[in-house]
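Hey L., structure's done. Input below.
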Amino acid sequence: MDAEELLEKYAAGERKFHSVHLGGVELKGADLKEIDLYNSNLNGADLSETNLVRAKLNHVLLARACLQDADLQLIEGSSINLSWADLNSTWLMGASLNSANLKNASIYQANLSRINLNSANLTDANLVETDLTQANLTSASFQNANLQKAKFRGANLEKCNLSGTNLAEADLVGVFLGQVNLRNANLQGANLERPSLENANLMNANLDGANLKRADLTGANIYGATFKNADLTGAIMPDGEVYQTSTDLEFGKPETPLTKEPKEIYIMTRKVIRTDKAPAPVGPYNQAILASGQMLFVAGQIAIDPRLGDVVYTEDVVKQTEQVMRNIEAILTEAGATFADVVKTGVFLADMNDFAAVNGVYAKYFSEDTAPARACVEVSRLPKNVLVEIDCIAVIGG
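Output:
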């Protein structure tokens, strides 16, 4: 089908165009309100300035299509593919785009207020100055997207992946960001007044100059994050304490406010590290605890293969040790560490005669000149009757 045939049938009252091939067609400025293009191919089509209000675009292919200045209000677009599409200045207010693919899309200065982008993929998308007010962005991925000066007031960003995003000067007032991944994100100068950042991952994020008044950072991971010139007045910090703007008061004298630039922040934090690439705990303990954002305490690891959930190589101490070291490596990686960060290990053997064999495997992971301190002891029995158990302590960024 070509553009002319489509427009003729539409003008005659037809609205349902399922599974049609319209790749590369030019429909610039066309009035296609309430059209149903289910499962159709419009890859590379020119739909700029087109009226698609209340259109049904479920499972439609629009990769590299041009929708600049199009009116897409209240469209249905479940699983729509808009990767690399041009949506600059597009009107998408109230649209429903569940699980849409918008990877690398250009959505500059678009109106996406009240849009539903639940579980959508916006990786590497350009959303500079885009209006996402009251949008549903639950579980959406914005990894490495450019969201500079974007508006998010009233938006739901629960469980979003915003790692590596540029959110400089973005408006996030009162936004719920609980459990959101903001690792390595740029939030410089962002307005984050009164947001919920409970248990959010802010590792290595840039919050310089940000407004964090009355922000709730309870349980957040702020290891490596910077807060230079940030306003943390009344903010709840990761340890649950309210940030204080005055200290060292003289007895009998009124409080003297500190300079507006807050002092360097050092907050005691405690984060549980979990990965399915190492054995799950089988008792009241965790795989590791990241304390104060720097010290990592890894629980004793034995030769359980996490894929099987059971001990492997029951009679081979060398292979058991290799499995133990793989388990430790998986936990270190999950916490952002390596074996080079380990400062102390504990080795527990069922038989000290196995020391040389265990040490031969151990030495592959630690060179003599930088090896951590170590204790090695023989014990009467180990969990699940394994032959070796190893725990460790690492210091990250110390």
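Confidence is low (pLDDT under 50) at residues 246-268. The longest strand covers residues 342-349.

-- N.
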